Amino acid sequence: MAVTIGEVAKAAGVSVSTVSRALNTPDLVNAVTRQRVVAAAEKLGYSPNPAARSLREGRTESLGLLIPDITNPFFPPIFKAMQERAKRQGYTLLVADSDEREADELETIAAVSKKVDGLIIWASMLPEERLTELAARMPVVLVNRQADGVSEVHVSLTDGIAQAAEHLKAYGHQRCVFVDGNGNRPDQSRSKSIRAAFDAHGLSLIEIGPYEPRFETGVHAAPLVLAHEATAVLAHNDLVAMGVLHQLAALGASVPGDVSVVGIDDTILASVSTPSLTTIRIDPDEVASRAVDLLIGLTHERPAEAPVVQVGSRLIPRGTTGPARRESR
Amino acid sequence: MAVTIGEVAKAAGVSVSTVSRALNTPDLVNAVTRQRVVAAAEKLGYSPNPAARSLREGRTESLGLLIPDITNPFFPPIFKAMQERAKRQGYTLLVADSDEREADELETIAAVSKKVDGLIIWASMLPEERLTELAARMPVVLVNRQADGVSEVHVSLTDGIAQAAEHLKAYGHQRCVFVDGNGNRPDQSRSKSIRAAFDAHGLSLIEIGPYEPRFETGVHAAPLVLAHEATAVLAHNDLVAMGVLHQLAALGASVPGDVSVVGIDDTILASVSTPSLTTIRIDPDEVASRAVDLLIGLTHERPAEAPVVQVGSRLIPRGTTGPARRESR
DNA sequence: GGCAGCATTGCAAACGTTTCTGACGTATGT
DNA sequence: ACATACGTCAGAAACGTTTGCAATGCTGCC
């Protein structure tokens, strides 16, 4: 069916090994034969069979990305950036969606791990020892998750949250609500950072939740915000923030007149909402580059100490934040 | 590194061929040896090397999906559904984003086509003859695009658009604007269907565009809608509709009080907007199943006539449509 | 009792590639 | 002039699977 290296060899009147060298290590073959070979390859439309190459080389030139839910608008830009980055280094990126379920994640890893040279796992739900033992068998980069001896890209919300606190403080807000949408996931850092930043700025913080990170969570939270007489809300992510906006409107509260709202992630939701949503941005290109480069590095050589790299965040002030309502209810 | 079939064979005290048969065609091997083999395989954690298997079998057990932009919230649910569907039939799904550029699409096809048994190409920008010749070399299913002799899933907006026209008519609307966001893409069917449906319902239709399918297009369109004294807008997709909503609010027009807005795609944007967006829904699970099943069918046997399957659409009435404003401006 | 047939297993080939080893010829250095 | 080195190429092995073919031993039938 497809054209093989053997047919190219025959067409060029040389051996298969010469064809292979002419294409892979051109300086090892005489200029004129090389010409003949590439001409023949071109003419026949030859391209090497990746399965055969993988079998021989022991590597697939592919990377795997495991994410909890591609439907979450936070991920597509990340995937796109990673794919771009991987492609430029000769790798194909394979995504898989674990559907927020631990069982699916395990199954997906099993299905995909043999087809790739390394794995980027975002916010894994697996127990730490599984991750450690997986990383012992193949290159693994964790994002937003930590495990002993496993490389990691840590996206830190610290800066963005500090800026959000500063921003709200400057607008005169004093009582804020944080809507925790972390569910029962292992990573508690978001909640901790927020507590720290708001304390540091002398803002009183009311945490509600944890709930699941869904639109309905925001809908649920909106009346609670009003009941707590808070003037600002920091939501677990943009989706939850959209729920808050939606329900505040239904309750007749104006944004940002009565309540200011801040999201996290700077997804497309934030930029298209009305008013547009103030949010904390994590640069997808940066996380993507860091994670991909780190993983590719790992496939070449395994350092003794698993590297950890940080990426930052920043506040994008938009239309849902403004001066606090005077206390005159 | 990884455990091979040979090691399993040694551990079980049989030949490699027996191991292979015990795992792939169990009825061909004696029950007790089979037990011994599976036990050994289990114990060593054996799983077959996909590269070797592909090489031998000539198939990869993978399918490719080519989409113009994963960042468009329309696609993630489709991808997810396709991945699910493919997985249940033993296939891995490989997505690639062609970034809306013809050159990238070609390059991506080249990169991915050898790694998969077939390709689903969504809204291809390639010239028809390229698609036809590609489909001659490997199984291809086109979505929202047509090419001679190539299988196709056609998602028809006809029903949804008819329902939208009916819906607007019932609410007393008479002058509607269609914001065309098709850019310079080949497929003109959307515009045609809309013209037909609105004519059929005796609604006057003003088409503006074509523009690119972006948020800003909606922002641009909003004042034009008012200038045309239309009371309803049908946008090219939800994203454009969000732009319209955003700018109508900025212009002081209320939705749906002054203007009704209808989107297309039923993305997450539609469900989280305020008010929530009336839109035309295409069921992702249905397109996904149809496309995947069709493609897998094609990998088994190539029918003489390339099959074409249709999937429908329907209106989801939500908060952005209502009774038309009385003509009393 | 002999022969056909079946169940069970091992051997070896094949898939397409890369790379090691070696062969051949020519140029170079002493 | 001879040995060494080098450039250039062909041959063959190897990667891990699956599967066609053959070998073995047993059963059952006439």
TrEMBL record, chains A, B:
Keywords: DNA-binding, Transcription, Transcription regulation. It comes from Jiangella anatolica. The keyword DNA-binding applies. The keyword Zinc does not apply. GO terms for molecular function: DNA-binding transcription factor activity; transcription cis-regulatory region binding. Residues 3-57 form the HTH lacI-type domain. Gene3D superfamilies: 3.40.50.2300, lambda repressor-like DNA-binding domains (1.10.260.40). This is LacI family transcriptional regulator.
